[in-house]
Amino acid sequence: MRITDVRVISYPLGKLERPYRNSILTTTNKGLSFVEVLTDEGVTGVCFGGNRATIEGSIKARLVGEDPLDAARLWHRMFTGWRKPVAKGDAIAAIGCVDNALWDLRGKILGQPVYRLLGGFRNRVPAYAAGGYYEDGKGLPELAAELTGFVDAGYRAVKMKVGGAPFPEDVARVRAAREALGPDIQLMVDANNAWNAAEAIRFGRAVERYDLTWFEEPCWPDDLEGAAAVCRALDTPVASGEIEYTRWGCRDLIERGAADIVQADPQTTGGLTEWLRIAALASAHHLPMAPHGNHYVGAHAVAAVDNGMIVESYAGLHPWQDEFLAPMRLEDGELVLPDTPGLGIGVDRAALERAASR
Ligand SMILES: [Mg+2]
Questions:
Q1: Residue 50's pLDDT is what?
Q2: Distance 130 CA to ligand 1 centre (A)
Q3: Could you give the count of Cα atoms lying within 13 Å of 45 in the half-sphere of its Cβ?
Q4: What is the tens place of the pLDDT at every residue in 296-318?
């Protein structure tokens, strides 16, 4: 079997009714985008994607005519030969999109779900709902209602944003969340690179009494020394790495002690092929993996390895996706991996085409 084409299909879906923001960015638009890898035998790999110019240009040129089963060889072909081997940046995320579509394709060729091809450590994984963003008109009662709504939907762990409001207000938001959730639900906070080390340590100490499962991205991404200082200062584990690229970027994060929990995103970091290498590196340092990003891919990653901790889910944050993507089954706070070949992402293309043309 040979690869014949690689393409990106995007469905812009208009404006969100209510924009939401974290400490650094505001999200205003809805949309879905896919990468497809086509073959001469009619089997097609699909995953989420973007960056059409790079994927349909240089990356496609490196893949057409190749055997899709050669995971490590194709990753190396995508990484080299058309650019200097720089290990960070948008090109790595584009490689990651295609690598994940290639894994979906391999699963379909071999008749196996991807998590089994990657390692098959287990077939269900703990999941948390990502939410608790800032929105106009969203006060403490609305925040509490949103987070307890995730628990009502079946989650046993939820994450909220911090770093985007004045310090006392953020502390009050975390207190309100813990009081609403009670002691048995895991709660994480995510600062999205809001602070320097001194500010982050001060905040971390102020919310330590609320029994946080982790404190995410306290410092700027290049400030590994600062993040390491936060790790040393707090009992709360620091989670980081969602915008770190490749095994080399994550090596620096890990070796400099800048994360207690590694959050490499299976798309951003260069795809599931590279994510597995990072998971092995983290395992050698006795660190768990809690991948950032879409649970449709992240659940396969967490299920594949012995140090998979928990997977992020945007299901509560992006309820509009339910119209287009078949949900993954959630039982007792755990996502159940699909046993269909590939990644098992069920996409209603007809509904997407209708919605995108509206
Ligand atoms: Mg985050």
A1: 86
A2: 9
A3: 30
A4: 999 999 999 999 999 999 877 78
Residue 347 sits at φ, ψ, to 5 deg, of: -115, 130
Cβ atoms within 10 Å, residue 134: 20
Q: Alpha carbon of 278 to those of 7, 101, 251, 272: distances in Å?
A: 27, 19, 8, 10
C-alpha of residue 44 to centroid of ligand 1, in Å: 31
Say how far apart CA 296 and CA 337 lie, in whole Å. 9
* Token pair belonging to 233: 């200062």
Sheet holding 26-39, edge to edge: 3-21, 26-39, 44-48
Give pLDDT tens digits for 48-74: 998 999 999 999 999 999 999 999 999
Report the C-alpha gap between 271 and 308 in whole angstroms.
16
CA of 63 to the centre of ligand 1 (A): 32
The Cα-based distances of 157 to 153, 314, 334 in angstroms read 11, 13, 10
Q: Tell me how far the alpha carbon of residue 265 lies from the centroid of ligand 1, in angstroms.
A: 10
| All residues at 6 or more sequence positions from 86 whose CB lies less than 8 Å from its CB, including other chains | none
**pTM for this one?**
0.97
Q: How far is the CA of 111 from the centre of ligand 1 (A)?
A: 33
Residue 39 CA, ligand 1 centroid: distance in Å: 35
- Give residue 316's pLDDT: 77
Give distance in angstroms: CA of 149 to centre of ligand 1. Answer: 20
**13 C-alpha to ligand 1 centroid (Å):** 24
* 82 contact partners, CB below 8 Å, separation of at least 6: 58, 59, 61, 62
CA distance 81 to 97: 18
Instruction: Tell how far the Cα of 305 is from the centroid of ligand 1, in angstroms.
Output: 21
Q: Which domains does the chain have, with CATH numbers?
A: 3-111 (3.30.390.10), 116-336 (3.20.20.120)
- What percentage of the chain reaches a pLDDT higher than 70? 100
Extract the tokens encoding 65.
Answer: 């005519």
Distance from residue 69's CA to the centre of ligand 1 (Å)? 32
Rounded to the nearest whole angstrom, what is the distance from the C-alpha of residue 117 to the centroid of ligand 1?
A: 27
**Identity of the residue numbered 107:** G
